[in-house]
Records
---
Amino acid sequence: MLKEEVKARLDQIFLDNPSLFLIECTVSPSNQIRVVIDGDEGVTLEDCMTVSRAIEHNLDRETVDFSLEVTSPGATEPLSMPRQYNKNIGRKLEVKTSEATITGTLVSISAEGIRLEWKSREPKPIGKGKTTVLKSEEIPFPSIVKANVVLKF
C-alpha cells in the first residue's frame, strides 16, 4: 500500500519535472522509503528536496510511520539506465560486457546502444615500431553488464 502511494507521488513529480527520472524506489518492511533519482542534466539538492517534500507532504504520518531518503546516484555508482548515458557523452567509461571490459570515451548513444572510442598502440603493418590507432566499438545495451564513469583526479 505505502509503495503504491509513493509510486503515485513519484509519477506526478516526474510529470511536473520531465528532466528528472527514477532509478530506484524501495520500501522496507519497517517503512523506510529510499528513492534514487537522476536527471538529464544531473540532480541538484533542490531536486532532492522537491521530491522529498512532494512525497512527505502527501503521506499521513498519523496513519503510517515512515522514514524517507531521497538521493542521486553517487559518482562511483554504475549507470543502470540508457537515459543516464546522455549526460556522460564525452566522458571516459569503463564498460564490462560478458566478453570483455572496454575503457573509452562515450561518443554517441542510440536507441540500441552506445559507441566508445579509444586510442591503442599497435604494431606497424610494415616495419618496426608501433603506431597509435583510433579504435571504436558499438556496444548494445543488452550486452552491457556494468558501466561506470572513470573519475579523473
---
Amino acid sequence: MKQLMNFMGRETGEKQRKAVLRLELDYELATLFDAMSESDKLKITECKEKLKKIRQELLALKAL
C-alpha cells in the first residue's frame, strides 16, 4: 500500500512538473520572439540555451 501511495504521489508530481515546464516553454518562446524582434543577439542566445534545457527535461519526463 505504501508503494502505491508513493507511486501516486510521484505521478502527480510529474504531471505538475510537466505543466510548469510547458508554461516555462511558452514564456521562453515569447521572450525569444521579443529578442529576435529587437535583434538582441545576447538575449537570443540566452533564450535558446534555456529552451534546450527545458526540452531536455521534457524529454526526460517523456512529455514530448
